[in-house]
Design goal:
The chain is an all-alpha fold. It is built from 16 helices and two strands. The longest helix is centred in the N-terminal third of the chain and has 30 residues, at 17-46.
Length: 399
């Protein structure tokens, strides 16, 4: 990949985007390990798919509030410092999960983990944006997400095997090791930033109102959020469904491995294509694929065929995951990124919250396959919304 090797403005790009991609890979390994067993871990306490959905939705609400509350902190402190210390706190929390056996302790740890997650996500995203030129942003985002998704190919297989052989608690210990390795790699890389605002935006309600005044930001908010809403189906509800159909933890690993493969193969290519052809066509096609496959799954009872179709749906996700964030950064200026990136990221949590609550309600009254109908309808709404976005073409800026 030219972004990893080549040169840009006389400087080896590997010293910036390549190192960030490797650091992101290490973090993503830890997240992939945890997300593979997270729903099953919660289910071991409550023994209910619906209750797991409601608990997860409550944690999502905490994430939404955190995105707004943490804006002044994101503006005031160096993003490199915030990213590093959020990783350290992340790793410590995972270690505590590894030795915990009480549900109320789980709730407390999950609360703080959610806050650390928001700090890590926002600081890392801004660092990646600041180390990219405007015309290279979608390609760089594609590179970052390709490395992350490579971790999501490897992680579920490791987690499935370890959980099946040694139990879930070991997964938290292994994940903590990867988080600490990523913190060490970031410290050694000496990636730094100077993007600190002197005047802080402390008025949460004013920031929220100003963010939603702009039509393009609102569209970006929901389109990006809907992408992550799809992952609610894949990483929260499908692992529990797999276990309830009689399959073991290894099949969760196999499934999540298969889901990540199309992302690794195609995400970087689609991110470059978005820079050349514009975002609108990419968004329409991606959401269209997700809506159709989800609808097909509603009518299929064979669990193996359902898992195969959902894995193929990741071709659509490869068109959307990195491009939606690149699109957001393309429609704002540098002065707005610290102020609006946190509120923008609440779209992820708001749409996940909607997906979790609606799916949990569906599970109370209807069989599991109606979840596919629900998510198919949500993706179809995003398909229609894609017609309204501003068709940014990065390559025109280069010319």
């Amino acid at each position: 990949m030219g972004v990893l090797i080549g040169k840009q403005r006389g400087e080896k790009v590997f010293t910036r985007m390549g190192k960030l991609a490797i650091i992101g890979f290490l973090v993503a390994i830890a997240l992939a390990l945890i997300d593979t067993i997270w729903a099953v871990y919660m289910d071991s306490f409550v023994h209910s798919e619906a209750i797991v959905g409601f608990i997860s939705a409550a944690l999502t609400l905490i994430a939404i509030v955190s995105c707004f509350v943490l804006v002044p902190i994101i503006e005031k402190y160096k993003k490199s410092s915030l990213f590093f210390w959020s990783l350290i706190l992340f790793g410590i929390t995972y270690l505590l999960f590894a030795i915990n056996t009480k549900f109320y302790i789980f709730v407390i740890l999950a609360f703080f983990l959610t806050i650390f997650y928001i700090l890590r996500m926002n600081s890392y995203g801004i660092i990646v944006k600041d180390k990219s030129t405007k015309t290279q942003l979608s390609k760089n985002e594609g590179l970052i997400y390709t490395f992350m998704n490579l971790a999501w190919v490897i992680g579920p297989l490791i987690a499935g095997y370890l959980a099946n052989a040694y139990g879930i608690n070991l997964i938290f210990l292994v994940s903590a090791i990867f988080v600490f390795l990523s913190a060490l790699a970031f410290k050694v890389s000496k990636i730094n930033d100077v993007n600190i605002k002197k005047k802080l935006d402390k008025n949460i309600f004013k920031n929220t109102k100003e963010f939603f005044k702009n039509k393009n930001r609102v569209l970006s908010y929901f389109i990006s959020g809907a992408v992550n809403c799809w992952w609610v189906l894949i990483y929260l509800f499908m692992p529990m469904h797999i276990i309830r159909t009689g399959l073991n933890n290894l099949w969760i690993g196999y499934f999540l491995f298969a889901v990540a493969v199309p992302l690794v193969l195609f995400e970087y290519k689609f991110s470059k294509l978005a820079g050349k052809k514009g975002f609108r066509k990419i968004f329409k096609t991606g959401f269209g694929i997700l809506a159709l496959i989800s609808l097909f799954c509603f009518f299929i009872s064979n669990i193996y065929l359902v898992l195969l179709l959902l894995a193929l749906a990741s071709i659509g996700m490869a068109m959307l995951e990195s491009t939606t964030e690149a699109y957001f950064f393309d429609i704002i200026n540098k002065k707005q990124e610290c102020k609006y990136y946190g509120p923008y990221n609440t779209g992820i949590d708001v749409c996940q919250f909607i997906g979790k609550i609606l799916a949990s309600v569906v599970l109370i009254f209807l069989p599991f396959n109606y979840i596919f109908l629900l998510f198919g309808a949500l993706m179809f709404l995003m398909f229609l919304l894609s017609f309204k976005i501003k068709n940014v073409i990065e390559n025109r800026k280069a010319n």
